[in-house]
Amino acid sequence: MADVDEILTKAVIPAAGLGTRFLPATKATPKEMLPVVDTPAIQLVVEEAVAAGLDDVLMVTGRNKRPLEDHFDIAAELETTLEAKGDTERLHLVQRSADLASVHYVRQGEPKGLGHAVLCAARHVGHEAFAVLLGDDLIDPRDPLLTRMIDVRRRLGGSVVALMEVPREQIHLYGCAAVDVLPGEDDDVVRVTDLVEKPSIEEAPSSYAVIGRYVLDPSVFTVLEKTEPGRGGEIQLTDALRTLAHDVEPGAGGGVTGVVFRGRRYDTGDRLSYLQAVVRLACEREDLGPELRAWLKEFVQTL
Ligand code: UTP
User: Fold this and answer.
1) What is the structure's pLDDT at 1?
2) Does ligand 1 lie within 6 Å of residue 112's CB atom?
3) CATH code of the domain occupying 10-269
């Protein structure tokens, strides 16, 4: 049910996937720990959650949880060394990730899919609405998508997905939403009438791809418990959202709204888009950008 006074505090970050597209880098490290210039993707995602007011972060981890835990913990030896050297700038960088949020962990025994990873958060989340953020998508802090989604959840209730228009030939890489206008709302807020996971161009009901930010009603857990493995033999979050859109009454937490994102998103999900994201973000940085841009201009002449 809609509740404009509702306060969301919890964010769930699934990081238990196998990350096969990045092997061998992800053999012993979760792909969410891959650096985006010099910061692990997952730290940028936690910073985004905190900026939206969500400072209780649950990470769903898999077999390689150690680097994640270490990253969000204090690093006594490193801190002492940097302190002794008087290197306060780097000391601050090392301490920042441990101070960001209250970080918790839950284990997903087997990587049975994103829907299953979210279900692993049920006990921690309880009966509150919560956000899910995927490290594959980085949202520029200048375009606060999650804050907008939380506002929509408060006003309209139900669950909220982030949508982005993509070229039709790329839609098979995403979950895809069929949408309808929502009278009285701005044109970035739409009703989601159907969802299909990774459809072919012919099957795709629109060019709206579901990207890696969700604000979910806790009724999603009851639905996920009953969701059978779908595409790829995995329990798909998209399938549970489809049930919430179609079969669950608004009074019982059903209904799905889409927020169409037109801001800056950096896709780090596969090797090519990851490289593009790193170059774009490094080019924008004050410390690295000027030299990198000059070098890139010269480099492209040689291609
Ligand atoms: P992906 O579909 O990108 O899968 O997961 P993946 O296994 O990580 O990567 P590839 O395709 O093998 O390279 C989307 C998000 O869901 C998490 C992943 O960690 C990623 O953040 N996930 C996926 C889980 O936590 N558990 C799962 O069982 C599956």
Assistant:
1) 65
2) yes
3) 3.90.550.10
Rounded Cα distance, 242 and 257, in Å: 11
Does any ligand 1 atom lie closer than 6 A to the CB of residue 241?
A: no
If you average pLDDT over residues 57-62, what whole number do you get? 96
Residue type, 288: L
Nearest to 136 by CA among 234, 26, 42: 42
- Candidates 23, 29, 31: which one to mutate for ligand 1, based on the most atoms within 8 Å of Cβ? 31
- Compute, in angstroms, the gap from residue 136 CA to the centroid of ligand 1: 9
pLDDT-derived band at 64, boundaries 50, 70, 90: confident
Question: Is the CB of residue 116 below 6 angstroms from any atom belonging to ligand 1?
Answer: yes
Six-digit token pair at 216? 């979910």
Residue 56 has phi, psi (to 5 degrees) of -110, 105
HEC string for the chain: CCCCCCCCCEEEEEECCCCHHHCCCCCCCCHHHCEECCEEHHHHHHHHHHHCCCCEEEEEECCCCHHHHHHCCCCHHHHHHHHHHCCHHHHHHHHHHHHCCEEEEEECCCCCCHHHHHHCCHHHHCCCCEEEECCCEEECCCCCHHHHHHHHHHHHCCEEEEEEECCHHHHHHCEEEEEEECCCCCCCEEEEEEEEECCCCCCCCCCEEEEEEEEECCHHHHHHHHCCCCHHHCCCHHHHHHHHHHCCCHHHCCCEEEEECCCCEEECCCHHHHHHHHHHHHHHCCCCHHHHHHHHHHHHHCC
pTM score, whole prediction: 0.96
